[in-house]
Amino acid sequence: MGTLGKIARRTFLIGTGLVAGGLAVGYYYYRRPYPNPLEGELTDGEVTFNPYVKIAPDNSITLVAPRAEMGQGVSTTLAALVAEELDVRLDQVTVEHGPAGHAYANTTMLEEGVPFPHFDESTIAELMRSGMAVAGKFLGLQGTGGSTSIVDGYYRMRQAGAAAREVLKLAAAKRLGVEPGTLWTSDGVITDPASGKILTYGEVAAEAAALAPPSEIRLRDKADWKILGKPQKRIDMRAKVTGAPIFGIDVRLPEMLFATLRMNPYRGGPIVGLDAGAAEKMRGVVKVIRLETGIANGFAVIADNTWRAFQAADAVQAEWGKGAYPPDDAGIFDAFDQALRSGDASYGRDDGNVETAFADAPRERIVEAEYRVPYLAHATMEPMNATAQLKDGRLDIWAPNQMPTLIRQLAAKAVGIETENCFVHTTYLGGGFGRRSDVDYAIYAALVAKETEGRPVQVTWTREEDTQQDMYRPAAVGRFRARLGEDGLPVAIDMRIAAPSIIASILPRYFPSLSPIGPDKSITDGSANQPYTIANYRVGGVKAPVAIPVGFWRSVGNSFNGFFHEGFLDEIAVAGKLDPLDMRRKLMAAYPTAINVVDKVAAMSRWGETLPAGKAKGFAFTLSFGTWVAQVVQVADVGGRIRIEKVWCAADPGQVMDPAIFEAQMMSGIVYGLSSAIGEEITFADGAAQQSNFHDYGPMRMFQCPQIEVGLLETAHRMGGAGEPGTPPAIAALANAVHALTGKRIRSMPLSKEVEFV
Amino acid sequence: MKLNVNGRDHDIEVEPEMPLLWVLRDKLSILGPKFGCGIAQCGACTVFLDGEPVRSCSVTVGEVSGAVTTIEGLMPDGRMHPVQQAWIDEQVAQCGYCQAGQIMTAVALLEAIPNPSDEEIDNAMSGNLCRCGTYPRIRAAIKRAASANAGA
Fold first, then answer.
1. FRET label pair with A425: which of A113, A322, A528, B82, CA 20 to 30 Å apart?
2. Which of A232, A235, A240 to mutate to test the interface with B (most CBs of B within 10 A)?
3. How far is CA A151 from CA A19, A80, A157, A663, A703, in A?
4. What is the CATH number of domain A248-323+384-460?
5. pLDDT tens-digit readout, A658-667
6. Residues on chain B touching A710 (C-beta within 8 angstroms)
7. Are the folds of A33-106+141-240 and A329-376+472-753 the same?
8. Residue A659: partners with Cβ closer than 8 Å, 6 or more residues away
9. What PANTHER family does the database record attribute to this sequence (chain B) (predicted)?
10. Torsion on CA atoms A416, A421, A422, A427, rounded to nearest 10
11. If pLDDT is split at 50, 70 and 90, which confidence band does A7 have?
12. Cβ neighbours of A250 in B, within 8 Å
């Protein structure tokens, strides 16, 4: 980390995820709380206690879970944090996402952006984290990502529940003429045990909301938790099994129009010619408009239903200018290879002296390998969409999104109004996986709404558009070497990885005036920050200057570095004639949490037992988003094809707020990773992505899905996330299992290019 | 043109080549069937046509002569269908976008095969994509609903 001091602070912030200028505001400003966004949203008689709690006189209680519900169960668990301290049952409250507001800033998302491993608790690492938290609060970026929601809400939302409970007790105590400390609360009612009198929260809410909470509120001991730590019924389950209209694409408004768009498939290229004559004459078509933005260029068709808009879009004749990147995979990967050979690397890890360690290494003690992964689409089940209405200077946007305050700011700017006149309504998301932390769909909808004379308009992308205009998971290449010691263990590992920088791709889309400089830790995330002790250990990242738009994809850099690092360690184990799991155990001896998950998964999977012929297991470990995860994948040879039979997963996030939801997230992350490993790939030819829909971008289907067994531990002393950490090790463990089964070391994804899966 | 959906007749005026999905969603505001791919690859738009599961994105409204049932029609008396209840009991849904289609396909499977084997479940359900990876819990829910059938 010696280079850190040389990096200008501003550069550093941008390089790790901050996306706004003007940071020179003092601590005082940071300390000033943001206004409560619920003040303007109250219905008759309802009062609010803080940005997370509203109570009406009839005792209907509304909790705000201000993070995108994209399947990860966050609305249930965030509400549970408040409910635990407020002393209400989850089945007696309504949970809302709530309005976009700086009060809901995600400070953890930025804290975890610091270029230090999760286990680094040195003074400098902690100082940087707290500095990022200050910056995060003051930028007020409300966002869902980085598997941070529960960690971020853990204190704040319990405190919100407790503060509301305390003022409710104060108000009741006044009413009853007793000391507040003598009252009991449960299930939304306050009981005076001495008199047996009962008051509902609703009955005292109005008085309570006017009171200041006590300055010291003690949160409930973990041992006394009624809701947290136990599996809860998801609050969104009923709506989701009855087909309720809860998604962005289900928004219906009076007088609403329907639109679709087609953007230049040569990413970033201009419109050369556009002939919409025939399209504009088609039934139901209102108009065809040009969309020329800093994100992409193309056109939208506005019609009276979505299908007619789709049909008319097909009838528009467009001539597209080329994008500023090599037109095909050969050229694209040449650029990657060149960056890998000669680009400037920044080192996320540089222990010992790697150059010296390799200088005198005997040839037979060296292991070398080159790895590669393709671009990937997110392929959320709900295609990108957003609905917008611009009327009388007010812009409303209904969007399944992960970044409501960013949308508010940028959509307002796009249509030329002030930010405070833009209102973002976050619906449920039909999948996110990072795609909806980009905000292109919402800006396009705002621009289309400029053309509909005050009528709301829903802009729905076709699956083809969703696939071809994705902000892809970056492709990446890596060149690795290791020197083995006499005992087979590595004494030196040198990794050099080239990938496009996600921040360098995102910034110009939304903040063209900011130039991204400095390192991007996502290039080495999952390789540079793993809990292994190796005497000489260097991991360098090089930005590959390829201008295909890239974005955050579930587990981000870990999604490919998990494969790179753990695939390469498996190779080292094979070369050193060591058991791959046992070798990890030795290298991770300084990190008891890592050993715990390794031992757990070894026991769960009965690692080391003799398997019948035609079956094999692979192992991998990745610490990402604060959660320590070890996995074993078992594969079987079925007539020359490979079936993924079973996955065992041991995960330790320190504390588990809801074991059933956490387990579901591990399963989800595993399936998402395996799906990419067996068959997903975005390739380029003639300047455009070649895949367009589920027939040629094929996610895992049920017949391919293994059984999955998850074991949870709570031994880590810092809390980690749930949404992403299941993904990285699954990919590597599968590749390692395929090697164990077939003897074939596959160093590029998807694996299906070299072996056939069931 | 007449269309019977969930027991109700609708008069609609659209091109016969318009896919049933878009008639349901944009004309009738029946929003349970979802748009996922438009080419019968993902199953999110699954509805019943005279009791048979079809991909409504790839059936034109002109081809429809019988009764259409969407997920909204699974609980005519407001009570959960046993398959929906099994989905709740197993806490299947994550993002939930594909689940209406998954449930429709599962209902059709269990009507055809009340106690399906693992292989029969995989075969019947593999036309329905889920990106959240709920497949293991879908399997469990189908088995739960099947055993509820057997117990009934």
1. A113
2. A240
3. 22, 13, 10, 17, 35
4. 3.30.365.10
5. 999 999 999 9
6. none
7. yes
8. A229, A230, A231, A712
9. BLR6218 PROTEIN, OXIDOREDUCTASE WITH IRON-SULFUR SUBUNIT
10. -160
11. very low
12. 31
Q: How far apart are CA B112 and CA B123, in angstroms?
A: 13
- Helix axis angle for B135-151 and A659-679, nearest 10°, is 120
Cα–Cα nearest to A304, from B14, B64, B144, B79 = B14
Give the Cβ contact number of residue A626 at 10 Å. Answer: 23
Q: How far is B150 from chain A (nearest CA, A)?
A: 22
A33-106+141-240: which CATH number, 2.60.40.3950, 3.30.310.180, 3.30.365.10, 3.30.420.40?
3.30.365.10
Nearest to A346 by CA among A534, A587, A475, A525: A525
Q: What is the architecture of the domain spanning A329-376+472-753?
A: 2-Layer Sandwich (3.30)
When pLDDT is averaged across residues A289-318 and rounded to a whole number, the result is: 98
Of A352, A434, A479, A534, whose CA–CA distance to A145 is shortest?
A434
Task: Report ipTM for this prediction.
Answer: 0.98
Could you tell me the residue ranges of all domains in chain A? 33-106+141-240, 248-323+384-460, 329-376+472-753
Is B92 touching A (CB cutoff 8 A)?
Answer: yes
The backbone torsions φ and ψ at residue A312, rounded to the nearest 5 degrees and listed phi first, read -70, -35
Quick one: which of A143, A188, A189 has its CA closest to A17? Answer: A143
Residue B84 is nearest to which of A242, A429, A671, comparing CB atoms?
A242
Closest CA to A268 of A16, A463, A541, A512: A512
What is A158-176 written as a DSSP string?
Answer: HHHHHHHHHHHHHHHHHHH
* CA–CA dist A680, A675 (Å, integer): 7
Q: Is B133 on the interface with A (CB under 8 A)?
A: yes
pLDDT (tens digit per residue) in A581-599:
999 999 999 999 999 999 9
Q: What residue has token string 């003022």?
A: A167
Q: Which two tokens stand for residue A705?
A: 């899905």
Of A504, A520, A519, A513, give the one whose Cα is nearest residue A471: A504
Q: Is B19 on the interface with A (CB under 8 A)?
A: yes
Helix or strand holding residue A616 (H, E) = strand A615-624
Walk me through the domains of chain B, giving residue ranges and CATH numbers.
2-74 (3.10.20.30), 82-151 (1.10.150.120)
Residue A210, token pair as written in the block = 């006017």
Token pair belonging to A188: 């939304």
DSSP β-bridge partners for residue A709: A648
Fill in the DSSP letter of residue A747. Answer: -
Residue A394 β-bridge partners: A391
pTM given for the model = 0.95
Q: How many CA atoms lie within 13 A of A212 on its CB side?
A: 3
Largest CA distance in chain B: 47
